[in-house]
Structure formats: structure tokens, C-alpha cells
Write a structure and sequence with these properties.
single chain, 223 residues, alpha/beta, Rossmann fold, UDP N-Acetylglucosamine Acyltransferase, domain 1, seven-stranded parallel sheet, six-stranded parallel sheet, 23 strands
Length: 223
């Protein structure tokens, strides 16, 4: 049974916004009322079979006293597009709830900001912290005493060992691994499959080499 006092608007019209709607509907007490985006991107009055409002009109339609808002924007421009919308929503006085999938293993000593989305199968160990407006996709490990900054995006199956410090606006690709006690600079881009063993400077980029195509096809190999 939904709590009638927990009403929610989701900011965004892309796939993440649609998924966020589904997860909040299925796994939380929030009743999703619809979506919102900036007027310049609004080309209809509905999306995903729900009402679509302009952010500029949001306060007139839904008072901050009546609804909460979750900003479900992707990681473009090192999460700065989502950060900008998040800050705009906060300036309007809205609360931004967190979503934590019910099967997430999270210790009671973990500290969380707001507008955080944690998908299924994540492990959040003791004495960790996660900043505002950060997304953890499915299947990650955040080691003890590690911190993740604001406006980050952590893809699936990332291993962050203990006592690491992940800066703000960091993007981490699928299957990346971090040695313990590292400091990752703001706006670092860590590509899929990267193995990070040393501290990174701000705006550093680490990309793993992609697997090369074998010169013979599968039929020639007898598979």
C-alpha cells in the first residue's frame, strides 16, 4: 500500500527516468505522479503514459510541500548536466529522496546524501559515505571506510576497495577495480575494465585496451 503523503515527480525523459519510475513504483512507498523536463526539451504533454511538465512550471503545479523530486538524468558531461538540474531543483525547495533497492547490502554506519540511486546487488560496507546525486548501477562493491563524492556515476560490477576516496563528478565504467587507500581526483574518467593502483589527478582519463579480433573466424577454429 502506497503512502498517500509520499508523492514524487521524476526529472528526465530518457531510459534512466523510465527505469527510476518503475523502481520507485515497485520497491518504494512513493507514488510517482509524472515526469518533468525543461521547456525547451518538452515536445508533448506526456511521456511513458504519464503527465510531462516543464521544470519552469513545476512550483506552480506541485508545491515543494506536497511532492518530492528525483533527478533521473544520465552521466553526460561528467555528470554535470544532472548536477545542474539537481541544483536547480534544490534551489526551488524540493526534497530529493534516495532509492535503495531492497536487496542491497548496506551497513547502518554508511552515510548517504540525497538524490542517490542504488540498484540491486550492491554491497555497501561499514563506515562508507556516498555524496549527493550519485548513481550506483547494479552489482558494485564499495569497501569499508571508502567515500564517493557528489554527482558520480558508478557502472556495474565495479570494485572499490577499502579506504578509497572517490572525488566529485567521477565516472567509473563497468568492471573497473580500485586498489585500497586510493584518492581519485574530481572529474576522473575511469573506463570499463580499468585497474587503478595509484592516485589519479583531477580530470584524468584511464582507458583499458579493447580485446582484439582474432584473425580466424569461429568456423575456421572448429567451434
Amino acid at each position: 500500500m502506497k503512502n498517500s503523503d509520499n508523492k514524487l515527480i521524476i526529472i528526465g525523459t530518457g531510459p534512466f527516468a523510465q527505469i527510476a519510475r518503475d523502481y520507485f513504483d515497485r520497491f518504494s512507498d512513493y507514488q510517482v505522479l509524472g515526469f518533468a523536463c525543461h521547456r525547451e526539451y518538452k515536445d508533448s504533454d506526456s511521456v511513458y503514459d504519464m503527465p510531462l511538465s516543464a521544470i519552469e512550471d513545476l512550483s506552480e503545479i506541485h508545491s515543494p510541500k506536497e511532492v518530492s523530486v528525483f533527478v533521473a538524468v544520465g552521466y553526460a558531461k561528467m555528470n554535470k548536466m544532472r548536477q545542474k538540474v539537481y541544483e536547480e531543483i534544490k534551489e526551488k525547495g524540493y526534497k530529493c529522496p534516495n532509492f535503495i533497492h531492497p536487496n542491497v547490502s548496506i551497513c547502518e554506519t554508511a552515510e548517504l546524501g540525497d538524490n542517490i540511486f542504488i540498484f540491486e546487488d550492491n554491497t555497501i560496507q561499514p563506515y562508507t559515505s556516498i555524496g549527493n546525486d550519485t548513481i550506483l548501477w547494479s552489482g558494485n562493491h564499495l569497501g569499508h571506510h571508502s567515500t564517493v563524492g557528489n554527482h558520480c556515476f558508478i557502472s556495474s560490477h565495479v570494485v572499490i576497495s577499502g579506504s578509497c576516496k572517490i572525488g566529485n563528478n567521477v565516472f567509473i565504467g563497468v568492471n573497473a577495480t580500485f586498489h585500497d587507500s586510493l584518492s581519485i581526483g574530481d572529474e576522473s574518467l575511469i573506463g570499463a575494465g580499468a585497474l587503478i593502483t595509484k592516485n589519479t589527478k583531477p580530470k584524468a582519463v584511464y582507458l583499458n585496451s579493447p580485446t582484439k579480433s582474432f584473425p580466424k573466424d569461429s568456423e575456421q577454429l572448429g567451434f
